[in-house]
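Entry for fe (ii) ion complex. Fields follow.
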Amino acid sequence: MDKKAFPYFKNWFREYIACFASPEPLIQKNIQLKAAHTNRVCKNICMLARAEKLRNKECNLARLIALFHDLGRFEQFSKYRTFNDFKSEDHAVLGVRVLKETGIISTLPVTEQHIIYKAIEYHNRMQIPPDEANEAVIFFSKLIRDADKLDILKLISEAYEEAEIIQNPALELNLPKSSTCSKAIIRDILTNKMAKLSDVKNQNDMNLLRLSWVFDLNFPETFVQLEKQHYLEKIYKRLPKTEEVRRVRAHLKASLKACQSNQKAQAFHVKDFLD
Ligand SMILES: [Fe+2]
């Protein structure tokens, strides 16, 4: 994708989200929140793409995926007043549907369109489907998943302390405060699995679920950022000081080290995906 095409798509994106402007403060606030998130994910993905030494055309494609990855969030919130996919619909599928209906990326080469649609469709799944065989789709899906997670961890670890965000029902999915953690989530983390949203019963569980993303991060630069910004430490601080949380913390620390040395050992592979 040509660098010059990006401003055109960004302009379209701005006009698209402007349609959802609302006099209702809750809607307006959450639309702005997602627009700001999109901007930061665009920056994150460029940072990861550059660290992976992608060529300009692959970097531009990555940035476009980031721009559109949460497109479905705008219709989702204005229609259902929630970001909870279970209580509304899958925002990734919704976003792809909007892209296809509007035909906004139909001028791009078909191979690029395919990568964009698939990376968006997979960005919020528990995992990239194991039967996905397209190497470019897998690579760009991993990029957007890392870029997205980095920003959510940033939001949760930094802005979370602001009472207004805790009280925003759209962000915390109306979860109650609690002094306990769900056993299923602790078990998943201690066995190196990502926690499941269906096991989340309170705010602690949600924080633990975000910590469990460590098992699904793909790029060395993502780990560098995680450490540099102290995201995990900031999230630990809000968890109850129990023995099981201490075990989770020690386990994640060890897993992080193992992930990083695994990545260093990975052989260099070609990343020129586009013609
Ligand atoms: Fe996102």
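NOTE: The chain has two domains: 5-151, 176-265.
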